[in-house]
Design a protein that fits this description.
With about 160 residues, the chain is mainly alpha-helical. Helices cover about 45% and strands about 5% of the residues.
């Protein structure tokens, strides 16, 4: 049994925006406080401050991480997949490990032209289930309404 998200399948229209996460080291304490040496020149202080800024900028550039997916969309997808696994366990009357090989591809359902086509795909997938599947199909179609297909990760240069 598996629930496919289609993350590496065909590209979708809605891609991740230009969101970026930056990692910065905390500011250092002890620069220019009381009790330090009194013999330093202001030129040396300026040079060391400029060097510290360059190091900080370099760290800042190296710490860029591109966010490839919308976290809220991923969270919704995970909750939906967990619900599907739970429901399939109830429909087939067994644990996840014992479940027959049933694959519900959410992105494939989202590609369908309309609700009827989605329902037909789900009925074909659940054809060997001995319990009624109408309520599960209706609830799943309600839950995927408004969801977007996940696009493959976009490679961005730093």
């Amino acid at each position: 049994m598996s629930v496919a998200t289609g993350g590496s399948e065909a590209a979708a229209a809605g891609g991740g925006g230009g969101n970026r996460v930056f990692f910065q080291s905390p500011p250092r304490s002890g620069g220019g406080g009381s009790g330090g040496s009194s013999g330093g020149s202001s030129r040396e202080d300026a040079v060391s401050a400029a060097a510290a800024v360059q190091v900080q900028q370099r760290r800042h550039q190296q710490g860029k991480v591109t966010v490839k997916y919308d976290r809220k969309e991923l969270r919704k997808r995970l909750v939906l997949e967990e619900w599907i696994v739970e429901q399939l366990g109830q429909l087939y009357g067994c644990e996840e490990e014992e479940m027959p090989d049933v694959e519900i591809d959410i992105d494939d359902l989202l590609d369908a032209a309309n609700e009827e086509e989605r329902a037909l795909k789900l009925q074909e997938t659940l054809v060997d289930c001995y319990k009624p599947t109408e309520e599960f199909i209706k609830e799943l179609l309600t839950r995927i309404r408004g969801m977007r297909k996940l696009s493959p990760p976009q490679k961005k240069s730093i």
